[in-house]
Each structure stands twice: as structure tokens, then as C-alpha cells.
Design a protein that fits this description.
The protein has 278 residues and is of the alpha/beta class. The chain is built from eight helices and twelve strands. It folds into two domains: 194 residues, 3-Layer(aba) Sandwich (Rossmann fold); 65 residues, no CATH class. A hairpin with a 5-residue loop joins strand 3 and strand 4. The longest helix has 18 residues. The termini are far apart. Bound molecules: adenosine-5'-diphosphate and magnesium ion.
Length: 278
């Protein structure tokens, strides 16, 4: 079954039951504390992200969202269980999972274009293909004029655009994003959301996106997951298609449907009055 929506004249479609790209099976993670205690963060978590999906993951601070993403990225090993990418177990980081964090880890001694070209260079892609792809991705993130600038000369939003292009140029199977726009001001965040939506629409890249912002999750994701406070189980799962309908002139975010979904997600995240107390 295929759903379709019109956006900016271009037909956008996605499979309602997509082929799975990344999958966790009974994934558990325990951390050792400085006092030598073992703390369980994820307890037998099973989930999948399918081809072309844009999954947004929400949950109270400290519930294990970043831990889940780091295991998927291959940065940490699970205590038990497995993560597979296209059915093959993940054993460490590689370019098939592009990762973007809140504070982009760019190389300050390289220019914008050198940062973007870094992955293909390391993988031994030939120079002309790397140069062509670098130009293409510089265009996609609207930073052609900053190609020769150093990272310290860029604003936070520009750095985050470079980080996204640097991940996408490797043509990863999935983009794993951990609160990528969390440190940006409201206007820049809005612009970055639009840019990411259009990159996703053009490339149909599979995305797992962690955020603490319910509006951001609903206006970007095709599926929203809310994690429990402890253990990593999902207490709410919601399909969404607002991202396919949002445009500058479209008041989707003020619609009753959007506000209702927002309320449902908010109460799933904060269902204990004590959680309001800081
Ligand atoms: N390296 C670590 N060692 C010990 N505890 C950790 C480590 N990383 C995270 N934690 C703990 O695991 C829990 C989940 O952390 P995290 O995955 O970062 O949560 P979230 O991203 O949802 O805020 C928190 O209680 C955090 O303090
Ligand atoms: Mg986190």
C-alpha cells in the first residue's frame, strides 16, 4: 500500500510497511558507575526503522535515547541483544550509519568543502567523483559561497548544515541524529527543519531523529515514538503525515489534528505531575 501527498507540485510517496533498514532485537545496555554498580538503561528493546521512514524519538531526559542511538551507530556495544543493518549485525561505527550530534564534530583545521569531502577521501573515492559530490552537497545545504571558509568562521546553523552534508555525502543507509537542532535559536531551528525536510524529500534517506521538542517531532517525522522513563520500552507510537503537508503557506501546525496529536504526545512524556518539578 502506498500513501501519496502533494508537496510543492512534486508527488511524495512512501511505503506504509517499508523494508526494515535498522533493527534492534532484545537490546540491553548496562552502565558501570564509578562506585562499581551496574545500572540498566535499556532492557530488551526491540524496534525497527524502515526504508525511507523519518522516525522521531522522544522521551524524558535520561531515559536512554542517546544510548540507543550510540548502540545503533556502533559507538557502544550492548550488554546483550543485537543491532542489525539490512540484516547484518552492527559491530562498530562505519559510514553506512551517518551520525549528527547537537555539537557537530567537524575538523576545525579544514575548510567547509574539505570537511564535506573527508569521508569519500578516507574511503578512497576518486578525486573527480569526490569533487563533484562535494559541489552537489554544498549546493543542497546552500553553502556554495562558504566552501573555502574555516569552521570557526561559521554560525551554529551553518556548522550543522556542514555536519549533515558530511554525513549524507557517504550515502549512508540511515542518518542517526541526536538533538541536532537543540542548541540553535528558534528561527535557525525552523530553517534547519525546513532544510532537513527537503533533503529527506529529495533523497528519501531513512532517518532516526532524537528530539525533546514535540512540535519538531510532529512536523518532521512520519512516525513518533515516546520512550518510557526507564528501561527503553516505547509507551506511545504514532504515525504522522504532517511533514508531507507542511509548507510556508500551510497552517498545518495550527490545525486541530496537529494540536490533538501534540497533546497526546505531551501527556505520554509528562504523565506524572512530579516531572514538572525541576
Ligand atoms: N557512559 C555512561 N556511564 C554511566 N552512565 C551513563 C553513561 N552514559 C549515559 N549514562 C546514564 O544512562 C542514562 C541514559 O542516558 P542517555 O542515553 O544519555 O539519556 P537521554 O539521551 O535519553 O537523555 C542516564 O541516567 C545517564 O546518566
Ligand atoms: Mg541524549
Amino acid at each position: 500500500m502506498t500513501e501519496q501527498a502533494e508537496k510543492g507540485g512534486a508527488a511524495v510517496s512512501y511505503e506504509a510497511v517499508p523494508r526494515e533498514v535498522i533493527k534492534t532485537c532484545d537490546l540491553s545496555v548496562r552502565y558501570e558507575t564509578d562506585l562499581g554498580e551496574s545500572v540498566s538503561v535499556l532492557d530488551r528493546v526491540s524496534m525497527t526503522v524502515g526504508e525511507g521512514e523519518f522516525v522521531c524519538l522522544l522521551g524524558p531526559s535520561g531515559c536512554g535515547k542517546s544510548t540507543l542511538l550510540k548502540v545503533m551507530a556502533g559507538f557502544i556495544s550492548p550488554s546483550s541483544g543485537v543491532v542489525t543493518l539490512d540484516g547484518i549485525p552492527v559491530t562498530g561505527p562505519d559510514w553506512q550509519r551517518g551520525v549528527v550530534f547537537q555539537n557537530p564534530a567537524l575538523y576545525p583545521w579544514l575548510t567547509v568543502e574539505e570537511n564535506i569531502a573527508f569521508g569519500p577521501r578516507m574511503r578512497g573515492v576518486n578525486r573527480s567523483k569526490t569533487a563533484e559530490d562535494t559541489r552537489k552537497f554544498l549546493g543542497m545545504i546552500h553553502l556554495e559561497s562558504a566552501a573555502r571558509q574555516k569552521i570557526y568562521e561559521l554560525s551554529g546553523g551553518m556548522r550543522q548544515r556542514v555536519a549533515i552534508a558530511r554525513a549524507l555525502i557517504n550515502d549512508p543507509r540511515i542518518l542517526l541524529m541526536d538533538e541536532p537542532f537543540g542548541a540553535l535559536d528558534a528561527l535557525t531551528r525552523e530553517q534547519m527543519q525546513s532544510l532537513l525536510r527537503s533533503l529527506w524529500t529529495q533523497n528519501r534517506k531513512t532517518i532516526l531523529f532524537i528530539t525533546h521538542d514535540v512540535d519538531e517531532a510532529l512536523s518532521l517525522g512520519t512516525r513518533v515514538l515516546v520512550m518510557e522513563k526507564r528501561g527503553g520500552a516505547f509507551k506511545l507510537e504514532m504515525s504522522a503525515d504532517f511533514t508531507l503537508r507542511i509548507s510556508c503557506s500551510d497552517p498545518v501546525r495550527a490545525s486541530r489534528e496537529f494540536l490533538q496529536a501534540r497533546g497526546e504526545i505531551m501527556s505520554a512524556i509528562v504523565n506524572n505531575p512530579a516531572d514538572y518539578v525541576i
